[in-house]
Amino acid sequence: MPSAAPAETPEPSTRLVISAVAVMLLLASLDQTIVSTALPTIVADLGGLDHLSWVVTAYLLTSTVTAPLYGKLGDLYGRKVMMQISVVIFLAGSALAGLSQSMWFLIASRAIQGIGGGGLFVLALTVIADVIPPRERSKIQGVFGGVFGLSSIAGPLVGGFFVDTLSWHWIFYINLPLGLASLVIFALAFKPRGTRQTHRIDYAGAALLTAALSAVVLFTSLGGRSLAWDSAPILILIAIAVASLLAFVLVEARASEPVLPLSLFGYNNFRVMSGVGFLTGSAMLGAITFLPLYLQVAKGVSPTASGLQMMPLMFGILVGSIGAGQVMGRTGRYRILPIIGMAVLCGAMLLLAGLRPDTPTWMVMAMMALVGVGLGPTMSVGTTSVQNAVPQEMLGVATAGFTLARQIGGAIGVALFGALFAVRLGNALGRSLPEGVEPGSLNAAAVARLPEATRVQVLDAFTAALQPIFLVSAATAALAFVLAWRLIEIPLRGRRT
Fold first, then answer.
1. CA distance linking residue 88 with residue 24, whole number of Å
2. Which pTM value belongs to this model?
3. What sign does the CA torsion over 143, 147, 150, 152 have?
């Protein structure tokens, strides 16, 4: 095919585009986790302990609800201009967050960051589809999957470094020079493709989708923690989510240019990989959220040390993602890769369900490496198989839909796992804690101060409360394994086979 030659030896401009997009994707995904180790310091400086979770939720909410909008707008008006707009918004939010002098100002700034970050997630992957054919694209998607995994683990480490050496403001300021440099390189190197047409924006669909996703993220973030699951606000949010989703489906069926075309669900590989992405998103963020908790409380290590001990998970994701991309690029075969990945992930989660306070650290790290190896293939195979299955004009919305499924899965998974853990821990501890000590206040330092007999009991209860999380994750991976068998191997476009 004529397009094969440039893909064999990428032009310098293509390599520059790939590098710039990789930096943008790194910044957007890094900001999902970089604040975790800085939150105690931020609260000590700004106050607002009751609103602490919203520093994370604000970014997650806005990045989730805007992702499908950017996918559609990129298809309609060109990915170059939409990428530039999303980077500018992201950097503006970063600057405002760094300048924050109150908790509410920081939360609002994080929401602005998320509006830009949602575009970076979707457009970064779609831009690559414009410059690299699917056969060679799989290798790049493997690297991007590794970037996503790297940011998930490196976020807490980077955040802790800036808090210790400079100040928490720099976890946001660092985005500015890197983002500006990548923006300039991208603007110079990326050549827009396609012709401009007159378009109609589906405002009703966009509003309903935003309402549905906002309600879902809110009730999964707040339910079981800030508000009881059967409280009036949570029930109202659930009703809004259901009603908005039903109305969205009706509107999209009639829209001339829908935000998320229902015809996407007519493509088998989109349905399958969106389902797999939803399930693995919850398993991945569940592991990343609760494994540091185990290391810090049960093993008594510092936050920085726990981040270092999670490096095997990061390297596992890198190996799984990049390795799957290489196999896909060289053989053109990809169906078996997520199947193998989900089998490995299920086994790894079952092993983690057996964690005890005295489990050797090397064994825990080996289990984490297996989790990463299992997760990796879905990051590279998922995007490429979805993009390869849809027409060129639907690349943006298809990528956005797949990304959206993974993000929503992560948000729901973490929220539900958090509620499950809190209930199990409270029941397991019972009245064993000294007066004045609450389960929610337990950390490595608090556990170390307990009497020896109480400390042993608390650690046993803590690890017992973690077991259902990993068992549910194993069941989720098993369901994704079954679903992955329905993937159809469509020959990759872009190279002679």
1. 11
2. 0.72
3. negative
